[in-house]
């Protein structure tokens, strides 16, 4: 249950970005465990796939995400998410948006929250990311070809530029316990 926000001047929105399998979800899990509400852009696409009654396959998630952007603009998911985040900010000091993938989304969030908005990039080597994706077994994941296709699609939305220009960067080329410690250290520096 959310607690009343202590000081609205301290309210901040963080958006985490990173290539597929970099560890965005693990970062979000650490924040959830600390009581920070998380909204997922990927969950919005998964919900749209489910709403349409489509097969949950790697290419379907990518096609739906691309179709939403083509029909409604590259910022469609960000625009839809802003009201939800604003509601959470009414009773929380911090909110995390998981899965920032495009520069158009970043622009919307920057306009919405100004200096209260910051980005966090999670970085990891390609081979390690692919191994993690194979182990987690999500319906939107697939083989090496699907992995490469997804990387190219998300780079096409500007994800590489978001990673390069992030306010904060966390390296996730280590075992999970070490990464969770790094996330906790980052939180202690930026949330207190």
Folded structure, characterized:
Helices cover 56% and strands 14% of the residues. The protein contains 9 helices and 5 strands. The protein is of the alpha/beta class and 192 residues long. It has a 5-stranded parallel beta sheet with strand order 2-3-1-4-5, sandwiched between helices. It has one domain: P-loop containing nucleotide triphosphate hydrolases (Rossmann fold, 3-Layer(aba) Sandwich), CATH 3.40.50.
List the main descriptive attributes of the protein structure presented here:
192 residues, alpha/beta, globular, 56% helix, 5 strands
Summarize the structure.
The protein contains 9 helices and 5 strands; from the N terminus they run E-H-E-H-H-H-E-H-E-H-H-H-E-H. It has helices spanning 24-33, 41-52, 58-72, 76-89, 103-113, 126-136, 144-156, 159-165, 176-190; strands at 12-17, 38-40, 94-100, 117-123, 168-171. Helix 1 (24-33) crosses helix 9.
Helix and strand arrangement:
Elements: E1 12-17, H1 24-33, E2 38-40, H2 41-52, H3 58-72, H4 76-89, E3 94-100, H5 103-113, E4 117-123, H6 126-136, H7 144-156, H8 159-165, E5 168-171, H9 176-190
Parallel strand pairs: 1-3, 1-4, 2-3, 4-5
Helix pairs in contact: 1-9, 2-3, 4-5
């Amino acid at each position: 249950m959310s607690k009343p926000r202590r000081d609205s001047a301290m309210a901040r929105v963080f958006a985490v970005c990173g290539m597929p399998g970099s560890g965005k979800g693990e970062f979000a899990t650490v924040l959830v465990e600390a009581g920070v509400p998380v909204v997922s852009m990927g969950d919005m696409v998964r919900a749209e796939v489910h709403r349409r009654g489509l097969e949950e396959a790697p290419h379907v998630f990518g096609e739906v995400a691309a179709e939403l952007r083509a029909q409604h603009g590259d910022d469609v998911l960000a625009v839809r998410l802003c009201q939800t985040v604003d509601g959470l900010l009414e009773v929380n000091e911090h909110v995390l948006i998981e899965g920032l993938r495009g520069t158009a989304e970043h622009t919307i969030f920057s306009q919405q929250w100004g200096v209260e908005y910051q980005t966090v990039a999670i970085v990891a080597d390609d081979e390690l990311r692919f191994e993690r994706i194979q182990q987690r077994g999500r319906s939107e994941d697939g083989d090496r070809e699907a992995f490469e296709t997804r990387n190219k699609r998300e780079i096409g939305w500007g994800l590489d530029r978001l990673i390069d220009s992030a306010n904060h960067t966390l390296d996730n080329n280590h075992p999970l316990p070490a990464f969770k410690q790094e996330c906790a250290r980052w939180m202690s520096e930026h949330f207190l």
